[in-house]
Structure formats: C-alpha cells, structure tokens
Amino acid sequence: MKSTWIRGRQALLALAVVLLAVLATLAFVLSGPGETGQAAPQGVTSRPETPSAEQGAPADGGAVGEGMPKADPVSIDVPKIEAKSSLVPLGLNADNTVEVPPVTQPMQAGWYKNGPTPGEVGPSVILGHVDGNKQKGIFFRLKELAPGDKVSIARKDGTTAEFAVTKVERVAKDKFPTDAVYGDTTEPELRLITCGGVFDKASHNYLDNIIVFARLIAR
C-alpha cells in the first residue's frame, strides 16, 4: 500500500508540473505598439516563478558550466551584425509584460533585471528593437545570426561574458516559448529577443519574435 501511495503522489506531482507549464503559456500577452506605431520588440510575460522544467538551448561542447558572480551588464557587442549598445535595466509593466527600451531610441538595448545577470547560471535576457522612430533598431539584423556566432557582454565588475549562439528561432508571438526562454537552466545562458516577421498595419505590430539562444563559453 505504501509503494502505491508513493507512486500516486509522484503522478500528482508530475501532473502539477504539466499544468504549470500550460498556465505559463496561457499567461502570455501581446505587447502594445510603440509611441511611433512600431511594435515593442517582444511580447512576453515575466519569467515564470516556478518553471515546469529545465529547458534552454541545445548542448554546446564549449559551454562553461560554472556561472560567474552576479554583476550588472554594462554593454553588448555582437560583431557579426555590428550591434553595439549600452544596456539599460528593464523591469515589468503594470500589465506584467516585460518593459522594452524606449522606441524613440531604437539603437538602445536593455536587459531584464529580474532574471540572472549575463554570466550567472540561468537564462539572461536582452531585448532590443528591430526598428523604431522610422530608423533601424539595434537588433535589425538579429535574424542573421547562426550557431557559433559570438556575443560579448561587458559587466560592471570589469569582466566580460563571452557567449556562442546555439540556435536562432522565429516564432509567432501568440506561441512564444515562455518556459524555453525564461525557465531555469543548469548553465549560464543568454537570450536575445526582438520583433520579426510580417508587420501588421492594422495592429501596428510585428507578428513574430526572433529569439537567439546562446551559452557561455568564456569569462
């Protein structure tokens, strides 16, 4: 009887985990248009407090398993797409969506301050506009990245976290992979997010997101 009870309890726990994942997906809401009618670069909710599973980018042979100490990021450099920017901290809006950099400053990137800092174990998230204010944005060419491309994050403690891209995805905003982006990971990882796909003139919003997954390879 005792073993049967244990198996039943384990099944209930597994079901609860699945339900949490479903709820996290249902909690997704689309971001509103920017001040100039341009879409915000992403449409995600906050990082789930209880992720359903440890998910992230595919394994990378050169990944650094141990994380770096907590230190706020200062700037980002993505050589392949000539994207360089300082990083401003981003929190949550009143509707629980993630803040984005000012659309009037489309070349400004920002980092999600409620998650791990770049180099710490877990997924660090950096957001940038694809365009705005009738100009190209900092992540206008983000979709050009491919596995192996490098991303450098300078940190306030004087160190630099070096990441290598593991995959690039284009996903519909109403199917945003919240858990894969914000869910816990066992190694230091990075996510770069912007808008992409077709621009819907009726809603003044891009229909998709471009998401770059990367892992720490040097510090």
3D structure, described in words:
Helices cover 14% and strands 34% of the residues. By secondary structure, the chain is of the alpha+beta class. A hairpin with a 4-residue loop joins strand 9 (188-200) and strand 10 (205-218). The protein is globular and about 45 Å long. It is built from two helices and ten strands. The chain has one domain (2-218): Sortase (Sortase, Chain: A, Beta Barrel). It comes from Amycolatopsis azurea DSM 43854. This is Class F sortase.
Q: Compute the average pLDDT.
A: 79
Report the β-strand fraction as a percent range.
25-35%
Helix percent band: 10-25%
Q: Structural class from helices and strands?
A: alpha+beta
Overview features:
single chain, alpha+beta, Sortase, Chain: A, two-stranded antiparallel ribbon, 2 helices, 34% strand, Class F sortase, hydrolase activity
TL;DR of this structure?
It contains two helices and ten strands. With 219 residues, it is an alpha+beta fold. Strand 1 and strand 2 form a beta hairpin.
Helix and strand topology:
Blueprint: H1 2-26, E1 73-78, E2 83-90, E3 109-112, E4 122-127, E5 131-132, E6 135-136, E7 150-155, E8 160-172, H2 178-182, E9 188-200, E10 205-218
Parallel strand pairs: 2-3, 4-9
Antiparallel strand pairs: 1-2, 1-7, 3-4, 5-6, 7-8, 8-10, 9-10
